[in-house]
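haha ok so turns out i had the wrong file open the whole time. this is the CORRECT one, sorry everyone. sequence first:
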Amino acid sequence: MQRISVIHYGEIALKGQNRVFFERQLVKNIKRALATHHYTKVERLRGRLILYLAAQASEATVQTALQQVFGITHFGFGVISSRDLDIIKRDGWDLLRSCSFDSFRVDTRRADKKYPLNSMQVNREVGGHLKELCGKPVDLSAADAALHIEITDTGVFLYVGKIPGLRGLPVGVSERAVSLLSSGIDSPVASHMMMKRGVNLVYAHFHSQPFTSPDSQENAEKLVETLTRFQYASKAYFIPFIDIQKEIMANSPAKFRVLLYRRYMVRLSERIARQEKARALVTGENVAQVASQTLSNIRVVGEVTQLPILRPLAGFDKDEIVQLARRIGTYEISTAPDEDCCSLFVPDNPATKAQPHWLTEAETGLSMDALLEDAMARAEIKTFKHTAA
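then structure:
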């Protein structure tokens, strides 16, 4: 029998006339996540995708890959069966008996209304047959194992269990943004959340070498490698920031120092966005988490760009962010010792409720044009590619 994975999506089904565009991007991403020796084809059917597994495919490997593809709500492994009810019963038993369970249920979805039995009738017929064979009770609300039967006009598909996916939208359907990536906990999680909305990211990391060790950049590279598992290819800009910091430290009030750092990071990120045809910036800012992230300070930092700044973590608390970081595999990297550029030359009493005109006035004493041009010219650009499972 042909082994398959039946893949379901959620939000894509609501896209109306654009649904095919989203489906095609999801298929493309599934193929990018899997090496060709694991599958023979991916078929688009209404409401589901059918991944045809190669003879030598490892279900464990395929499962790991599919669980890193945004846009998948759930999936399961099974077989292509027949419209003949006796064959459905036989194939259903072959799948179910490989599972360990004390109770089971049968769940039929009949998309093909020409099939002579409705969903309830199929459930009763197949469920009764399986109960005779296994001697286990049927439990419709809390079964240990579930046999899923999907009857469509192009085939009958059977699978056991539902493995949860990442949900969201396929990466690549929502244009491109530049993520300001530190080596800390928050910005990688913010990046992951924007990829969940279909956004393809370019990364901008600012460093203060040689005044700080290269650990921050090395950790940022590891973070990009980890995040690239979800979008398959990434570009990252590693931007020297120390000369800009020294100018700010020498010629501006100490209490505005961190806010000025951030304003010039945003300006440089906007230049990258124009270069990469990106439509927005992404930060890991979280309201009131640190002094520079009060609402007033968020406002004065954001006013220096015409691009929208997306802050997906704005309402999260730190524990929630840490849980997400652990889940996506970035926490251990983010907590490794390093020195990032924002920890350098930080004042003891930073401004917490800065007004726009204060920062505008502070910037009049800075000579930045040549420094910004030099930082962009010396930026190191690296590309990262995900190796398919």
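Residues 176-385 form a domain with the Rossmann fold fold (CATH 3.40.50.620).
again sry for the mixup
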